[in-house]
Specification:
The chain is α/β, with parallel strands linked by helices. It is built from 13 helices and 8 strands. It has 2 domains: 157 residues, Rossmann fold, CATH 3.40.50; 117 residues, Orthogonal Bundle (N-(1-d-carboxylethyl)-l-norvaline Dehydrogenase, domain 2), CATH 1.10.1040. The structure holds NADPH dihydro-nicotinamide-adenine-dinucleotide phosphate (NDP).
Amino acid sequence: MSKTASVTVIGLGPMGQAMAHAYLDRGYRVTVWNRAPARADALVARGAVRAASAGEALAANELVVLSLTDYDAMYAVLGGADPAALAGRVLVNLTSDTPDKARAAAAWAAERGATQLTGGVLTPPSGIGSPDSSTFYSGPREVFEAHRAALEVLSAADHKGEDPGLAALLYQLNMVMFWTALTSYWQAVAMAGAHGLKAADILPYAKNALDLTRFLEFYTPRVDAGDHTGDVDRLAMGVASVEHVLHTATDAGVDGALPAALLGIFRRGMAAGHGADSGSSLVEVLKRPAA
Ligand code: NDP
């Protein structure tokens, strides 16, 4: 077991509950606190200690795992506690939010004598406790290493750097790809359904379409070199293709908001003079907010 054989978990939504259960499974002494106390009941029945307040939960252990909705919730919870309770604590903040908020929270913690390790958890609650799941961490490496074994109870632990915003950034990059890709699948299912096809009918094609590995490997070195040569694809072709998608959706009475949004981005690329360039030129368009 790690140097820290005891841990506090604050925030017992589905993630925090899974984390506290994982620590109990591994024999840790676990102190828990949640705004709605009933969410701790099953954990207390397994031997967890219910803290009477967030301050008491902080006082119980050096290592404090935070699993809250966002950083505003963190300030609501920790800001009300006696500031002295934060001194010397390692706050493993597995709350997702923006990189800037993670950096501000790390500074806020440091002003109170605590250290934040920011985490970005890449698994749903069902994956907590498995070494096949992973979590990005950033913050002081020596603090990460000192608590590595305790962090690895939750998932594989991958330290990415000292900047407390980095883990949050990598998590958000993961999320923008995850949500847009998954929503593209929901769009395809809706369009298929309008033609009498079920999700199961399109599963093989969906798996193939969403495996973008060969495209990522092809475009990555070009994009990093600023090379948007239109030798294998052209943005003008992409515009025509997305128009076909939009019309296939609307002709079937299906919502067209997603392809219309795509078309808007593609047309901005055309307006910027990228019609004969690769669709990768959209990276240049997306670097700036729409006018
Ligand atoms: P939930 O939003 O379901 O629960 C979060 C916790 O935050 C609850 O304990 C809730 O308390 C507490 N909370 C929210 N607002 C306040 C507040 N103002 N004051 C005090 N407590 C508050 O989140 P999850 O458990 O699903 O996720 C936790 C974090 O992990 C989130 O940041 C999420 O983005 C991230 N995450 C979640 C994944 C998932 O699949 N669920 C996957 C990867 C990351 P109460 O019970 O009293 O409402």
